[in-house]
């Protein structure tokens, strides 16, 4: 296969993959549940009466080993330092839930819910523009992570 053919094939694969909508949830020290919603797009997205803010993120997927699964991680760019500090100060760890994907169908966007995938966020690392968390994967519930759905090579909008 020629280099051009490989690039065209890769482009088709990229166009066939869909950005995620995610919810980051934590309980603050007063017991209030706080939810931040992000879409891996360049525009805000409304889904099920909730606004998901445009925010580019990259997911490093878990790998299956002989002893189970390794942890995944997520990096979100252009985040507000204020809410990162709030999440870090909470006594209960934050979780991330993958809510839906955006399918591009005949020139229009269709948002499709996906099977619940939820991770506990740990080990926050922050620089001036990006926060990165480890996503703890619990294979006790036999959750299947869609390895081929989103990574930095095959998902548009990832940093």
Walkthrough of the structure:
The chain has 159 residues and is mostly beta strands. The chain has one domain: Pnp Oxidase, Chain A, CATH 2.30.110. The chain contains 2 helices and 11 strands; from the N terminus they run αββββββββαβββ. The protein has helices spanning 3-16, 81-89, and strands at 20-27, 33-39, 45-47, 50-54, 57-60, 64-65, 68-69, 72-77, 95-105, 108-126, 130-136. Strands 3-4-2-1-9-10-11-8-5 form a 9-stranded mixed sheet, with helices on one face. Strands 6-7 form a two-stranded antiparallel sheet. A hairpin with a 2-residue loop joins strand 3 and strand 4. The radius of gyration is 17 Å and the shape is globular. The two termini are 29 Å apart. Residues 11-17 and 140-159 have low confidence and may be disordered.
Present the secondary structure layout.
Elements: H1 3-16, E1 20-27, E2 33-39, E3 45-47, E4 50-54, E5 57-60, E6 64-65, E7 68-69, E8 72-77, H2 81-89, E9 95-105, E10 108-126, E11 130-136
Parallel strand pairs: 2-4
Antiparallel strand pairs: 1-2, 1-9, 3-4, 5-8, 6-7, 8-11, 9-10, 10-11
- With helices defined by DSSP (H or I, 4 residues minimum), what is the helix count? 2
State the helical fraction: 10-25%
How large is the radius of gyration?
A: 17 Å
Shape: globular
Strand composition percent: over 45%
The name CATH uses for the topology is Pnp Oxidase, Chain A
The main pleated sheet reads as: 9 strands, mixed
What would you say the CATH architecture is?
Roll
- Give the number of DSSP strands: 11
> Oligomeric form of this entry?
single chain
The helix/strand class is mainly beta
Average pLDDT, rounded to a whole number, is 70
């Amino acid at each position: 296969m020629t280099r051009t053919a490989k690039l065209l094939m890769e482009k088709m694969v990229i166009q066939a993959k869909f950005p995620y909508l995610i919810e980051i949830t934590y309980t603050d020290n007063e017991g209030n549940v706080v939810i931040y919603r992000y879409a891996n797009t360049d525009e805000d997205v409304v889904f099920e009466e909730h606004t998901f803010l445009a925010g580019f993120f990259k997911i490093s997927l878990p790998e299956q080993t002989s002893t189970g699964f390794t942890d995944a991680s997520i990096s979100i760019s252009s985040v507000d330092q204020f809410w990162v500090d709030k999440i870090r100060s909470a006594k209960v760890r934050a979780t991330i839930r993958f809510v839906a994907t955006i399918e591009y169908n005949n020139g229009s966007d269709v948002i499709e819910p996906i099977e619940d995938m939820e991770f506990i966020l740990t080990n926050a690392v922050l620089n001036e523009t990006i926060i990165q968390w480890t996503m703890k994967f619990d294979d006790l519930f036999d959750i299947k992570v869609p390895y081929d759905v989103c990574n930095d090579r095959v998902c548009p909008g990832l940093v």
